[in-house]
Amino acid sequence: MDCYTANWKPLGDSAFYRKYELYSMDWDLKEELRDCLVAAAPYGGPIALLRNPWRKEKAASLRPVLEIYSASGVPLASLLWKSGPVVSLGWSAEEELLCVQEDGAVLVYGLHGDFRRHFSMGNEVLQNRVLDARIFHTEFGSGVAILTGAHRFTLSANVGDLKLRRMSEVPGLQSAPSCWTTLCQDRVAHILLAVGPDLYLLDHATCSMVTPPGLAPGVSSFLQMAVSFTYRHLALFTDTGYIWMGTASLKEKLCEFNCNIRAPPKQMVWCTRPRSKEKAVVVAWERRLMVVGDAPESIQFVLDEDSYLVPELDGVRIFSRSTHEFLHEVPAASEEIFKIASMAPGALLLEAQKEYEKESQKADEYLREIQELGQLTQAVQQCIEAAGHEHRPDMQKSLLRAASFGKCFLDRFPPDSFVRMCQDLRVLNAVRDYHIGIPLTYSQYKQLTIQVLLDRLVLRRLYPLAIQICEYLRLPEVQGVSRILAHWACYKVQQKDVSDEDVARAINQKLGDTPGVSYSDIAARAYGCGRTELAIKLLEYEPRSGEQVPLLLKMKRSKLALNKAIESGDTDLVFTVLLHLKNELNRGDFFMTLRNQPMALSLYRQFCKHQELETLKDLYNQDDNHQELGSFHIRASYAAEERIEGRVAALQTAADAFYKAKNEFAAKATEDQMRLLRLQRRLEDELGGRFLDLSLHDTVTTLILGGHNKRAEQLARDFRIPDKRLWWLKLTALAELEDWEELEKFSKSKKSPIGYLPFVEICMKQHNKYEAKKYASRVGPEQKVKALLLVGDVAQAADVAIEHRNEAELSLVLSHCTGATDGATADKIQRARAQAQKK
């Protein structure tokens, strides 16, 4: 244990810091880091180097080279820079490389050097050029801040949703600030800059001078400033060698340290651990590294090579040409267990486990001591927590063995934390491997989450490892394996050296019917890569037509899209394709396409009936569908024409179409309607009133109601209305007029073809029993009983029914007998029934 703490350095009395090697870098750098533009992504991210960035002493003909490496120095990409001079490099939260050029253009590259997109920081930046730039991260995303040649600042807080903000101007600023940085306060990005002994805080509307509380006197300028990883703390390096540390709001001072070095540092970054009360800053010069905090002494390291600092959530990564190291505060659990002469429960449990392995009785002594103090649960938890913060697998195993040993003596210790730590460490050790090169710490891993880690493995095209992790952690398929396989398929379609057939087959064999995988998304990526045929082959595996059709339309394979939509049976989908085809094809080709698809043609006709009547007529004409064409002209005659002449002309066109369709009945009916319209117009002119658009029956009824009986009879003869129908019409009309005298004359004009029961019914409907009785006597024998019952003559109805000896009529009369009034009649019917049964 003593040997293990040899690299621990105390900072004051309450904290230790240690620096250990992550990787031995095998990258073959031909130039020093100082001669390159350098950018390293947080959370164990990649490193980007832009070699020979337009140095004056270099030959003008030499183009810079942009190289991207993993954190372990494994090359990921290398490309010759062919664009303009670059001022700054930085990584976004999505691990995209942002290259800020002198003209204000920002070029975005992927992890493997693939160009993604570009955007401009505005015309003002283009005109005044870029002096300096910073890439920063906020809760909204990754931002870019620019200092122009006019000493003005422009920034965008989120490059994914670019909104440029021009910051306020510093009064009287004639030269570039000695140092500046971005701050995030109240969800708003600010610029903090130093001009001589003054500090200014800028936003888009105001410029205010700020003064750090408790700053040592005699400061004439600020040489460097650094914001913590969480943007909560700020450090300022002054020309007097003092380092001021406080809150980013500049309202509270944490501490101050005099390093006695007045030379400006190359870099200054914060080195803090989450939930730790200790705050420290790491300052780097050419060959010296200093860790300072709230302590009278500092920790110093000698740098053998030119190095670069990368601030992390819980420490600082330091890489040079030969090594990559991690400097951080020793976590509390590790300190408790490993510090010299520690009697912490975790330390005793670790010793007990080691003695147990040696088969020594001291194991029992240590264990008893912990149990007597009632600290065995705490000891197990300490060992589990410390294991998470260890980088070396042998130390992880040692601590986990101790925790497992201690658990055996606890009755109800929940195993979740132990199992989860074992899983997390196995994942972390896998991604820390040299060939993977993601040196995440346990704290970073928990902050990043497993989903983001999987995304980063996918970005590096490490699909097998990502799938193994998903299966090991038993993640749901949609969140894990399915998602990764979909990314793999999207990468597979970009391999243009493999035939479309082979790629489609390989993707289908690997994916099959995996839930959560959309073949349409993969096909869209293939189409985006210019592989249309491959996209079509992949869409054949897509079971959802709603996903197939939009992409086929986008690929201008409209006829294939129409076939797929029809196969799906989804009418909305078919309509979508039809409207697309209508806009894409000329009228003739569109109609020819529809002729080959009966279902589509039928649906389009339905659409045209409500939206485009003229197109519907063209469809019928093209198909020589005279029957539907006739029906169309009939509807059009009433819907579109108000003048009688136009309506008659449309009906004549309809009649001609029906004759061509050999539909004699429809043609004759149409001609009759034309005659009726002309007659109705004449009646309106001669008699007044409204006749147009009435039916033939309504026209006759209107004439009768108007007292024009002869005209009505003539109309009936002209249009061959049957006598029965005419009598019904006249009967109804006269009863409605209550012209009972005329009705009686009409009934006696000749024998009624409809009988006289309708007269009784109509009179009773008009509540005229007196008139109804007149006709009841004239009703035929078969309907006599019904007529008598209608007028309320139950006794006579009973006599007639008895006379007819009709059981149905007897039952009908009996049903109308009510109370004492009809009691005698009911008895008479019962006696008649009894006599009939005797016979």
Which keywords apply here?
839 residues, alpha+beta, Methylamine Dehydrogenase, Chain H, five-stranded antiparallel β-sheet, four-stranded antiparallel β-sheet, 29 strands, 20% strand
Characterise this structure.
The protein is of the alpha+beta class and 839 residues long. Among the domains are: 31-211, YVTN repeat-like/Quinoprotein amine dehydrogenase (Methylamine Dehydrogenase, Chain H, 7 Propeller); 341-581, no CATH class; 780-838, no CATH class. It is built from 33 helices and 29 strands. The strands form seven sheets. Strands 1-2-29-28-27 form a five-stranded antiparallel β-sheet, with no helix packed on it. It has a four-stranded antiparallel β-sheet with strand order 3-4-5-6, with no helix packed on it. A four-stranded antiparallel β-sheet has the order 7-8-9-10, with no helix packed on it. The mean pLDDT is 85. Residues 349-376 form a coiled coil. InterPro entries: VPS16, Vps16_C, Vps16_C_sf, Vps16_N.
Question: What are the SSEs and their pairings?
Answer:
Elements: E1 8-11, E2 15-24, E3 36-40, E4 47-51, E5 65-69, E6 75-80, E7 86-91, E8 97-101, E9 105-109, E10 115-120, H1 123-128, E11 130-138, E12 141-148, E13 153-156, E14 165-166, E15 179-185, E16 188-195, E17 198-202, E18 207-210, E19 222-227, E20 233-238, E21 242-247, E22 253-258, E23 267-270, E24 280-284, E25 288-293, E26 299-302, E27 308-312, E28 315-319, E29 323-329, H2 332-338, H3 345-357, H4 362-372, H5 376-388, H6 393-407, H7 416-432, H8 442-448, H9 450-459, H10 463-473, H11 481-492, H12 500-511, H13 519-528, H14 532-539, H15 545-554, H16 558-568, H17 571-584, H18 587-595, H19 598-611, H20 613-622, H21 626-639, H22 644-660, H23 664-687, H24 696-705, H25 709-718, H26 723-737, H27 740-749, H28 757-765, H29 769-776, H30 781-790, H31 794-804, H32 807-816, H33 823-838
Antiparallel strand pairs: 1-2, 2-29, 3-4, 4-5, 5-6, 7-8, 8-9, 9-10, 11-12, 12-13, 13-14, 15-16, 16-17, 17-18, 19-20, 20-21, 21-22, 23-24, 24-25, 25-26, 27-28, 28-29
Helix pairs in contact: 2-3, 2-5, 3-4, 3-5, 3-6, 5-6, 5-7, 6-7, 10-11, 11-12, 11-13, 12-14, 13-14, 15-16, 16-17, 17-19, 19-20, 20-21, 21-22, 22-23, 24-25, 24-26, 26-27, 26-28, 28-29, 28-30, 30-31, 31-32, 31-33, 32-33
Membrane topology: Peripheral membrane protein
GO molecular function, one term: actin binding
Organism: Oryctolagus cuniculus
